[in-house]
């Protein structure tokens, strides 16, 4: 941003009368100030709650002007400029145990250092669901080929990173009753399954779903468990996921603005009724969406 402002200044300086120079200079200074305000807002996007399924905001000292790269469990971690220091935004998987962990921070001089952060305990509630279509609980061998392909594709999608944060703030994709909160320990027909990696919002089929923030459409498809679904990337590996839709109104490669219609609620895939399953991902793991949008 600063370099854009500088080149803009240089271009205009050549053609402008001298008395305008001080105005240009004031604009350049103002735009630099706007950059630092935007950085402060970026860290306000996330709420620090370092529990399994939560987000750890970890401060990293600013030793030079080049943003360091940060890794945890060999995955690239989002880093933002928080003014006084850098801030790593770490998505903590629901399966992580409480304890102390280390981020690997690599500076521009290639010096690596370790920065510790702590994950606290959090107990999520249990939920027992009866699914009538038994094939959606224990898929037939012929379904496994499709499921394995979809799992591989989801892994690719979750590894995708857009180089800068596009999201400025987050809003709920639709308002409705939360029928199943994030993190529930789930049992389908009494069989334990993975904990709930998103929020279920009950709504009629056809209810519009809006992009919660600016982003890019990375993938859309009709998946065995998820039904019609959409993956959005909001930058630096901050992603959102929408499942069980009746209609999809975007396609991979589209850029979407906050509040843009992206799809409609449905009951496709493994469901007991129409609802939106909404997930938020960070560094390839699902985190509690309320850490970005708050309660409704
Ligand atoms: Zn769900």
Describe this structure in words.
The protein is an alpha+beta fold. 21% of the residues lie in helices and 34% in strands. The strands form 4 sheets. Strands 8, 11, 13, 14, 15, 17, 19 and 20 form an 8-stranded antiparallel beta sheet that branches. It has a 6-stranded antiparallel beta sheet with strand order 1-4-3-2-5-6. Helix 1 runs antiparallel to helix 2. It is globular. Residues 1-38 have low confidence and may be disordered. The structure holds zinc ion (ZN). Zinc ion binds at residues 180, 196, 198, 200, 277.
Q: How would you sum up the global shape?
A: globular
- Biggest β-sheet description: 8 strands, antiparallel
Identify the CATH homologous superfamily of the largest domain: Glucose Permease (Domain IIA)
Which topology of the largest domain does CATH recognise?
Glucose Permease (Domain IIA)
Name the average pLDDT.
Answer: 87
> What integer value in Å does the Rg equal?
22 Å
Which ligands occur here? zinc ion
Order of helices and strands: HHEEEEEEEHEEEEEEEEEEEEEH
Q: Number of DSSP helices?
A: 4
CATH architecture of the largest domain: Distorted Sandwich
Number of strands: 20
Span of the ends, CA to CA: 34 Å
């Amino acid at each position: 941003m600063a370099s854009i402002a500088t080149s803009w200044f240089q271009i205009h300086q050549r053609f402008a009368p001298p008395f305008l120079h001080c105005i240009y200079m004031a604009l350049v200074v103002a735009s630099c100030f706007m950059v630092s305000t935007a950085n402060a807002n970026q860290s306000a996007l996330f709420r620090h709650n370092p529990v399994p399924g939560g987000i750890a905001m970890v401060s990293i000292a600013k030793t030079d002007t080049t943003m360091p790269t940060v890794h945890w469990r060999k995955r690239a971690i989002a880093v933002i400029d928080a003014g006084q220091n850098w801030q790593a935004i770490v998505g903590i998987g629901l399966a992580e145990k409480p304890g102390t962990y280390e981020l690997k921070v690599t500076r521009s001089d290639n010096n690596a250092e370790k920065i510790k952060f702590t994950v606290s305990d959090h107990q999520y509630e249990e939920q027992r669901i009866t699914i009538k279509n038994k094939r959606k609980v224990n898929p037939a061998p012929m379904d496994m080929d499709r499921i394995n392909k979809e799992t591989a594709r989801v892994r690719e999608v979750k590894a995708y990173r857009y180089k800068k944060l596009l999201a400025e703030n987050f809003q709920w994709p639709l308002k409705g009753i939360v029928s199943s909160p994030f993190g529930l320990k789930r049992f389908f027909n009494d069989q334990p399954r993975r904990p709930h990696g998103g929020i279920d919002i009950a709504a009629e089929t056809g209810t519009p779903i809006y992009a919660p923030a600016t982003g890019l459409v990375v993938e859309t498809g009709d998946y065995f468990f998820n039904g019609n679904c959409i993956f959005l990337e909001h930058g630096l590996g901050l992603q959102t996921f929408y499942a069980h839709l009746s209609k999809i109104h975007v396609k991979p490669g589209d850029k979407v603005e906050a509040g843009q219609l992206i799809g409609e609620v449905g009951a496709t895939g493994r469901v007991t009724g129409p609802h939106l399953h909404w997930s938020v991902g960070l560094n390839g793991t699902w985190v509690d969406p309320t850490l970005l949008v708050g309660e409704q």
